[in-house]
Amino acid sequence: MSVDAHADLTPTVTAFAEHARWSGVLSSDREAWLAARRKLLTASESSSIMGENPYSDALSVFVDKTAGRISAPEPGPESPIWWGNLLEQPILSGIAKYNGWSYRPGGALLISRHFDFLGATLDAEIDRDDGVGPIIFEGKTTTITKDWDENAQTLPMHVLIQVQHQLMVSGAPKALVFALLQGSRPCQIEVFPSPDFQAILISRAQEFMDRVARLDAPSPTHMSAPSLERMFPLSDGSIVKLPDLAIDWTAELAKIAGDVKDLLKRKEELRNMIRKAIGNATFGELSEPVNGKQYWRWLESRREGYTVEPRDEWSLLSLKGATMPGEKAGVQSVRISETAGSDDLEDGQQVVRLKKRRR
């Protein structure tokens, strides 16, 4: 059906009919939903064109809207997206029920009445009976806790852009973002409309959609390989003259390749220095945290090819007690008994050898 045929039904799917109209499509009809989104810039795409989405870039969005449509089956259980979609509504409806909030599930693709190139599909709408009225209820599940802080009311930039886009399309007075961090840690962030922020989003969105109309593709990024494969799926055997800048690109690639080789060698060298310092302990504790890291652990999988046996002439190592995380300093959680009759023991240390296990 056409959009006009559904225009009068907008109040049946959202409380924000004054600022947004229903496209006539629900996210449950995946194929129709994907097709309708090709004509709009949606909330999840807004952060991509702003260069703030860690999973997508502007070229990916451009190709989605200009290249031939490809089959896009719903992700399966191996994808975090699948789990997020599966858990989203039960989590949000459960929180709303627990708090006594009125709840309306989302899923309707809405189009801004003020900017007809902007769209959004809300997760849900709630009314907390606090005099504000209906607001957006956005759900997230993630194992990445960086930038989520309920006390400071901060959240990752790509999520903030997405929510400001939703506020812009819907005209909602605010949004409540509910994130379930690492599967069990609830985090609630309130987001209010920012006219200055939204003005930037509108400007960038208009610029991007103009490029789509001109078929003027944005520059690729490190995430653009799949998009380029969709843009140029065939190899016709011809030779094309590259621009002069390609000389600089090639030279820089050669330099980077050398730098990466040196960096990888240095990386492994540093890791081996830490392994040597840990020795036969399980954990190595830093005297002060570095970027939030306090302990190193030499994973047992790196040692599983060896067995510990009594001392040998060719390899002498010492097993010492180690203070484990959470224990008081000076309390050893690893205690090694002395080998009777050995004359190589010193200060309660047992001399052992490492022998390669046959496979």
Give the topology, please.
Elements: H1 3-6, E1 20-26, H2 30-37, H3 43-49, H4 58-66, H5 80-99, E2 102-105, E3 108-112, E4 119-121, E5 124-127, E6 135-142, H6 157-170, E7 175-181, E8 185-191, H7 195-214, H8 225-231, H9 245-278, E9 283-290, E10 293-297, E11 306-310, E12 317-319, E13 350-356
Parallel strand pairs: 6-7
Antiparallel strand pairs: 1-3, 2-5, 3-4, 5-6, 7-8, 9-10, 11-13, 12-13
Would you kindly provide a written description of the structure presented here, covering whatever features stand out?
This protein is an alpha+beta fold and 359 residues long. It has 2 domains: 3-229, Lambda Exonuclease, Chain A; 279-356, no CATH class. It is built from 9 helices and 13 strands. The chain has helices at 3-6, 30-37, 43-49, 58-66, 80-99, 157-170, 195-214, 225-231, 245-278, and strands at 20-26, 102-105, 108-112, 119-121, 124-127, 135-142, 175-181, 185-191, 283-290, 293-297, 306-310, 317-319, 350-356. The strands form 4 sheets. It has a 5-stranded mixed β-sheet with strand order 2-5-6-7-8. A 3-stranded antiparallel β-sheet has the order 1-3-4. Strands 11-13-12 form a 3-stranded antiparallel β-sheet, with no helix packed on it. A hairpin with a 6-residue loop joins β3 (108-112) and β4. α3 (43-49) crosses α6 (157-170). The longest helix is centred in the C-terminal third of the chain and has 34 residues, at 245-278. The protein starts with a helix and ends with a strand. 24% of the residues are buried. Mean pLDDT is 83; it is low at 1-7 and 310-359.
